[in-house]
Amino acid sequence: MLKKFFILINLFQLFSFEAYGAEEGMPQLNPEYWVSQIFWLIVVFTILYLILSKFILPKINGNLETRKSQILRNLEDAQKFKEESEKKIKDYEAIINEAKQKAKSIINDTRKKINEDIQVKKNHLEKEIESEINKAENEIKSLKLSSVDSVKKIAFETSSLIIKEILNADLNSSNVSAIVEDVSKKKLDKYL
After folding, report:
1. Which of 10, 51, 180, 189 is most buried by a 10 A CB count?
2. Ranges of each domain in the chain
């Protein structure tokens, strides 16, 4: 369209002989040519206005509207994505909290079960230890009781030998035996 406009102007200049200058100086300043200059000024600006308003400005306006609608769509999409991401974050936090609660529950259940197992094993071990202690005490008592006779025998023999060495005489074994028995009864109650 712009090409047609330039072709039209060139054709008009070819047919107008007065447009190529003036003999007396600059034709723009000559009042004779002002009417034609104003006419052509109005024609040129009218054509420019029509070209701008009909062809160029609608394209620019269309581009601006397209851009505006694209920006609005992008803003709407961004808002949707923001809402979705906030929802995902809330879901994620809920899942995390639920997992924490489950982990705490599992830990507490496991701790309770372990404590119960420990208590059962502790009770069993205490029973075994008590049984072993009772066995050992019984063995010690039986050893004490059996050792009392051995101690009495050793005391009798030792006392007989000591008295024999000191007095150079044999004593009646029943006397020594009665003395050892008497002393052992008095002292034995203290140790048993």
Report:
1. 180
2. 146-191
HEC string of the chain? CHHHHHHHHHHHHHHCHHHHCECCECHHHCHHHHHHHHHHHHHHHHHHHHHHHHHHHHHHHHHHHHHHHHHHHHHHHHHHHHHHHHHHHHHHHHHHHHHHHHHHHHHHHHHHHHHHHHHHHHHHHHHHHHHHHHHHHHHHHHHHHHHHHHHHHHHHHHHHHHHHHHHCCCCCHHHHHHHHHHHHHHHHHHHC
pTM of the entire predicted model: 0.40
The four Cα atoms 73, 76, 81, 86 give a dihedral, to 10 degrees, of: 170
Per-residue pLDDT of the chain (192 residues; tens, 9 = 90+): 777 877 777 777 666 655 455 455 676 777 888 888 899 999 999 999 999 999 999 999 999 999 999 999 999 999 999 999 999 999 999 999 999 999 999 999 999 999 999 999 989 999 999 998 998 888 888 777 777 677 667 776 777 777 767 776 666 666 666 776 766 666 655 555
